[in-house]
Amino acid sequence: MHGRRNVLTGSMFLFFFCGITGNTFGTVIHPELIESDVTDVLMLEEISKFRSGAGHDFSYDASFAYAGEYFGATDSTEPDSSMKHYLAPYATHLGDASTVPVYAPFDGVITRVTEEINDDDPSIINKRVELTSVDDPNYMAVLFHIDLDNDYPQIKNDWPAAVWPAHQPDDASYVTDTLSAGDLLGYADMRTGHDFDIAILYSVSSTEKYWVSYFDLMPDTLFTTYGARGANRNDLSISKASRISTPIIWWGSRNDDDWVELQTVPENGTLKIAIFGLIVFFGRPVNRRTS
User: Fold this and answer.
1) From CA 54, how far away is CA 118, in angstroms rounded?
2) Which pLDDT value is given to residue 21?
3) Where are the alpha helices (DSSP H) in the chain?
4) Residues 28 and 202: beta-carbon distance below 8 Å
5) Nearest one of 210, 143, 215 to 183, comparing CA atoms
6) Which of helix, strand or coil describes residue 258?
7) I need a surface site. Which of 71, 111, 208, 284 has the fewest CB within 10 A?
8) For residues 109 and 19, what is the distance between their CA atoms, to the nearest angstrom?
9) CA 107 to mean position of chain CA atoms
């Protein structure tokens, strides 16, 4: 059976501004839907920035659609970049698919599960999972390279056979496809990889969709864990204007500017984080300055 992680959450009525330059929107207000860290933050060494040059281009793909259904972002004005976050655990946590936990970031329903096959070793197979928010179905989290718990469908709503030769029928024997924030989805498959990743798709309509940063939906009550390790919210995203002015020419190679390295947690760091969480949990408000 899948486990559940205890989640400390603050007010769900705070909102903040996040710039997305699209076909019709200059500034969008996103709800703070994230109620749980997607993994154990203390296991992470570094996080790639939104619109970085880490990994591969993940921005706009005109072929990522079929019969009028768009599976990803539709904003063709985005420059090539990685519009997701790679989460890189410390080396001591690499080498298996049973150490680094992956949790549901919000209450949601699994709306798609597809297989991912390792290019270098086809025997290594893991899952790409789409989790749609029940509080706001316009937001969907995409989690990559997951050893998915057996309670959940191992294949669901696979890519259409017309565009995906490896299409598989839905898994009919599973316990549930519904999760609460903090429920254990499974474990990151770190058998050969350095990281796993998360993306957030925001849908204005069926034909207008944008990738947004996971951290754009995270309240301060959760971000404090990252802040305690030296992370700054603004440093985790590269603006569209900045990416346009500095196009990526280093695909396939390491660029330290693509990453935010988290500071080692001091001996009393986890205690401070726990105390802060308890304060928030028992009702003291935490306000974000918007000026």
Assistant:
1) 18
2) 36
3) 220-227, 240-245, 269-281
4) yes
5) 143
6) helix
7) 284
8) 27
9) 14
CA separation for the pair 171, 185 (Å, rounded): 16
- The answer to whether residue 151 is domain-embedded is yes
Question: To which residue do tokens 């207000």 refer?
Answer: 29
Residue 287, in any domain of the structure: no
**Which is nearest to 110 in space by CA: 84, 89, 138, 133?**
133
d(CA 11, CA 58): 32
Contact call for residues 155 and 214 (beta carbons, < 8 A): no
- The pLDDT assigned to 226 comes to 98
**pLDDT computed for residue 5 by the predictor:** 53
Confidence (pTM): 0.84
> Token pair for residue 68?
């009028």
pLDDT < 70 positions in the chain = 1-26, 266-291
Amino acid, res. 256: D
Q: Number of structural domains, the chain?
A: 1
d(CA 94, CA 105): 22
Structure tokens at 190: 């770190």
Quick check: is 221 in a domain? yes
What is the rounded (10 degree) CA torsion for 44, 257, 225, 197?
Answer: -50
- Cβ contacts of residue 245 below 8 Å, gap of 6+? none
Here the CATH number for the domain that contains residue 188 is 2.70.70.10
Does residue 216 fall inside a structural domain? yes
Cα pseudo-dihedral 179, 205, 71, 18, rounded to 10: -70
176 alpha-carbon distance from chain centroid: 21
- Domain extent, residue 66, equals 15-281
